[in-house]
Amino acid sequence: xxSWILVAAISVLSLPLQAEEKTALERGEYGxxxxxxxxxxxxxxxxxxxxxxxAIGATQPPTYENAGHNNNLSFVIxxxxxxxxxxxxxxxxxxxxxxxxxxxxxxxxxxVISENGQGHAVYGNHYWKSQGATLIGHVDAQHxxxxxGFGGLSRMREYAKEFAEDTDLVNFDVTFDEQYELDxxxxxxxxxxxxxxxxxxxxSVLIPSDQVVLAGDMAFHVRMPPIFDxxxxxxxxxxxDLFADEVSDWTIVPGHGGPTDIATVTAGTxxxxxxxxxxxxxxxxxxxxxxxxxxxxxxxxxxxxxYDELAARNAGRVFERMEFE
Length: 325
Known about the structure:
- The protein is α/β, with parallel strands linked by helices.
- The protein has a single domain (about 25-260), classed as Metallo-beta-lactamase, Chain A.
- The chain contains nine helices and twelve strands.
- The chain has helices at about 1-20, 90-105, 120, 125-130, 140-160, 235-245, 260-285, 290-295, 305-320; strands at about 45, 50-55, 75, 80-85, 110-115, 135-140, 175, 180-185, 190, 205, 210-215, 250-255.
- The strands form two sheets. The protein has a seven-stranded mixed β-sheet with strand order 1-2-3-4-5-6-7. A five-stranded mixed β-sheet has the order 8-9-10-11-12, with no helix packed on it.
- Residues about 1-20 have low confidence and may be disordered.
């Protein structure tokens, strides 16, 4: 009897721990796993302005349910041609986005700009290339494809399964260093790099006539900004200020999350980076360690999606780089 009571007590005590160990995705904190079940897209495009549409992706990690549509896939329509911004994680997503474009216009997709070299920005370029589009990206994004493309493609195939069929790696047709200008027919568009940001080759696409910027991963809200091992947060702050100065009164479509304004992405990007760097500097000033960085209290940001996956890792990576600033 005594041993049965002990086992029961241990079982009861372990229940909250097991619940706590579930991820935010498992706890349902991201909401619907798929908002467009009849399409490979996570959700259908919304009209942002006269010429700009965006299919707002899930703010959760890539899964089979969202087919890797966890970033924003946008398109811009001129009088002669369509520009797609972000090729998508695989051919199925690219094809699904194309089907939505065809519901709005008969014009051809002539150009695709990838916001960086990450998989959900470039793997679907294989489909767009087959449609005759010119693929455009930053030179540093091409380097990311060269170095990491095949590894990321393999991981995407594992979770995306049949969505990844026939998807292969392709290079950009055109690369640029600072900015690249297009005319879609009475509609100038500028792809621009403001400087180092979240990942190599981060590009923002400006549509001046609509005062809309497809900011890419320069700017975040709703979702915690990921900090990679090669992210220089000091330079990101400088780049963000240049970005904010130019588009302060524009509509901003970030790489993740819906259309918003500069105040919202400032809180979601700059203010977070300043906070985290400030806490790390305190640890460095006190002679603290990497373990102390992992323990930084970031609970004020717990409502952000991907907090569980990124908060501690972000702090550790900022600490490791700031040690040598």
